[in-house]
Amino acid sequence: MSEDHTEAEAADPVLLTEPRDGVPEVVADDTALEAVLDALTAGSGPVAVDAERASGFRYLPRAYLIQLRRNGSGTFMIDPTRFDDLTGVGRVLSGTEWILHAASQDLACLAEVGMRPSSLFDTELAARLCGMERVGLAALTERLLGYRLEKHHSAADWSTRPLPADWLKYAALDVELLIDLRDRLDAELRAQGKRDWAAEEFEALTASRPAEPRKEPWRRTSGIHRVRGARALARVRELWLARDELARSLDKAPSKIVPDPAISDAAIADPSDAAGLLAIPGFQRRHGRANMKRWLAALARARDAASGELPSVTPLHDGPPATHRWASRDPEAAARLKRARHAVLELAEEHLMPAENLIAPAIVRGLAWQPPAELSVDRVREAMAAAGARQWQVSLAATALTEALAD
């Protein structure tokens, strides 16, 4: 850690309770939006960007408030639900670096309204690369800037209208310090010789697109590990699909309809009437009771399904199997994975960063399960790059991984 950072850490943090320019009005009409575009155009330097979603409350993780701050412009908060799109914001910020914290969480909902960065700086990822253990926004501003932020409303239902005044204050403060934080982290990256590494990571984030939907998303139902047999798994699938259809139509998070563990419990018990289903706590909720016919019909479909329509007991895998099965299926691969993980961990400790940021665990698993036919540093480099590793990761880890795989 550089000397100026140490000084910031030594000072007692100051609780930041008010934005320096006050809490701006929420932009909700075209006239106000045009004024924002003019102000952003007149500003200079990078722009701090944040989005508030209603995760856990609404079906889709869309943005319900977008905050922006730029030097010479000020802070703005936009209600994206009041506009067809915000491509105008993206247009005036084209060529400007966006500063986000945990960018991967916000990029999709920003892109949905037409806002896509041409370059970005992710303060959370930068902190990880610098080897900082606590990388939340509040922890970083306290450590590096000497200001403490309260995070009381991070899990709030941001689809609420009107938004409470204290929520808006919280939202404005989320971008208040991002520009200063970016500068401190940028200096630390340079001091550690990692700025080029970060640039590759930021470029990959900028170019990223939403992941393809899972083929069998119902298999991620909490508690499904307790469900045994193809017929019981079919009950999980049918209940999950019935809940998902209802949640989409109501624009509610599926967990607000019926929680996951209740679906697994129903799949195990296989109740055939309302009384049996109501004995499972999760179905006693309002949407559980009101849609009793829906759930019983789903269970009946699973009960009546032909054997060829039942799901596989073993989940479909595009890559290697679950690692806990490696020892029995391929002991040599299990040994390779152990050595490769150890090599990555040693490198990560040497370079002061989490192992998962040095190289994605999925890439390590893929190499250990099926190494290149010709096991050489060049072939491992090629395999890493094909799997999505950045050039700095390839340069840093290819030799150590080759030695671990060949041991």
TrEMBL record:
Residues forming coiled coils: none
InterPro entries from the UniProt entry: 3'-5'_exonuclease_dom, Exo_C, HRDC-like_sf, HRDC_dom, HRDC_dom_sf, RNase_D-like, RNaseH-like_sf, RNaseH_sf
GO biological process: nucleobase-containing compound metabolic process
Pfam family, one: HRDC
Entry-linked PROSITE patterns: HRDC
Molecular function per GO: 3'-5' exonuclease activity; nucleic acid binding; nucleotide binding
Residue ranges constituting the HRDC domain according to the UniProt record: 229-309
Cross-referenced SUPFAM superfamilies: HRDC-like, Ribonuclease H-like
Name of protein: Ribonuclease D
Organism: Stackebrandtia albiflava
Organismal lineage: Bacteria, Bacillati, Actinomycetota, Actinomycetes, Glycomycetales
